[in-house]
Amino acid sequence: MNCAICMTTSSIPYHCCTNDKHCLCESCCINIISSIINNGKIALLLSNKIPCYICNEKFQYNDLPQNLQSDLNNILLTIPKTSKQPQSIQEFNYYYNEFNQLRHCITNKKFIFLTQRHYELLGKAIEIYIQTLIKSNPWNYEEIWLPINDNNQNQEKVNIFISNDFRTNTNGCLILIQGCGVVRAGQWSRSCCINESLDIGGIDY
């Protein structure tokens, strides 16, 4: 059968939607699905809500090529199994490599956007990761929660970080405080920490 897009004859045609009257070659199918993933619409694809570019019928996940299904399954592994706030990036199957870039634990690929909630939860886990780093060698910042000595359980608190010689250095000290929005101590840009590197989005690690 001929591919409905490039018109080349395909030995293994893929009927990616419910319309059996046309098919796609593997190359065109991969290009279309990759575009959907890169545009952050994977959640719609997995729920069979992406319309076919040719007939407007819905793409069917189970009809995709096996290698694409494998890629999608690996992306699904970035959804934490717990319903609570994950505390580590490992729960998302992500890690930071030697260049401080966020990568998938299995595929070593960059972050793939699923939903805004998934993005927010990962961002919180990265915040914990970064602030754990700045409390460790070689920085050894001290974490302080403000206001100090406030036993009011309903009182909102915020953490700041001070250099470990804060109380003894008479020549100067360093204090890391929170910014507005999602800017946190040690993290200037969450988006850069996720899509670029910690060196760009936070303190130089």
From TrEMBL:
Chain segments annotated as coiled-coil in the UniProt record: none
InterPro entries: Arb2, Arb2_dom
Pfam families per UniProt: Arb2 (PF22749)
Gene Ontology biological process: regulatory ncRNA-mediated heterochromatin formation
Source organism, top-level taxon: Eukaryota
GO MF entries: siRNA binding
GO cellular component: nucleus
Sequence ranges assigned to domain Arb2 in this UniProt record: 86-201
Stated name of the protein: Arb2 domain-containing protein
